[in-house]
Write a structure and sequence with these properties.
Elements (H helix, E strand, L loop, with lengths): L1 E2 H4 L10 E2 L9 E2 L6 E8 L8 E2 L2 E2 L4 H12 L7 H6 L2 E11 L6 H15 L7 E5 L1 H13 L11 H4 L4 E3 L2 E6 L11 H18 L1
Helix pairs in contact: 2-7, 4-5
């Protein structure tokens, strides 16, 4: 068993356009070999009560937990809690570990924090699928690939135009999708439908 938050740490907090007080890394104890799907959302919430996890456990009632469970239910998964989602072999994290200050996150911040995400992804040897929930997650994974001298994982372009193609990276299927964590999940029904389609395909491919 590994505690992820004990392995991944930001040194010096170099980014200036995020809320460092909202810094969060999943503090889960888990068997890394049990993870088949990694879902990467945007950034840690400003309020820690909205985050996926607290004190090593899924946070019941947290906004990120609520919307994620709904997204998996939309996809046909028989889940009623975030623990049920984890039991499917899904690991949940954010591309940026600190909280957002404005509407957008600077590209330099995404690139810097992608170094932590790279360390995180390296913990899981059996990942078959990556769900990139939104532009920030897509940029972060592309930044990891470019640093390693690899081509972009997901090409530039609008997500709705990219979703029909098959993308792979380091042996895993990669789905560019939309943000499922937080209040934006309730705003656009068309995006919610596409999120469900992507999660459904990810679950089918991880079996």
């Amino acid at each position: 068993m590994v505690t992820i938050s004990a392995c991944i740490r930001c040194e010096g907090f170099p980014c200036t356009n995020v809320d460092h007080d909202a810094y969060r890394v999943p503090d889960l104890d888990l068997d890394p070999t049990s993870v088949g799907i990694v879902l990467i959302s945007e950034a840690a919430p400003g309020d820690p009560a909205d985050y996926y996890f607290a004190d090593g456990q899924p946070q019941a009632g947290a906004l990120f937990a609520q919307t994620t469970v709904l997204a998996f239910q939309d996809a046909g998964a028989k889940v009623t809690s975030l623990q049920d989602v984890l039991d499917l072999g899904v690991y949940l994290t954010t591309a940026v570990k600190c909280g957002k200050i404005g509407y957008t996150i600077q590209t330099a911040t995404v690139a810097a924090c992608s170094e932590l995400l790279a360390q995180e992804l390296a913990r899981f040897p059996n990942v078959k699928t990556l769900l990139l929930m939104g532009d920030v997650a897509i940029k972060a994974v592309n930044a990891i690939a470019r640093r390693a001298g690899e081509r972009r994982v997901i090409p530039s372009g609008a997500t709705y135009k990219l979703r029909g193609a098959a993308y792979t990276w380091r042996g895993a299927r990669v789905f560019p999708s939309y943000l499922q964590a937080g209040p934006s999940f309730f705003i656009e029904k068309s995006k919610r439908r596409m999120i469900a389609e992507d999660i459904r395909a990810a679950l089918a491919g991880s079996l």
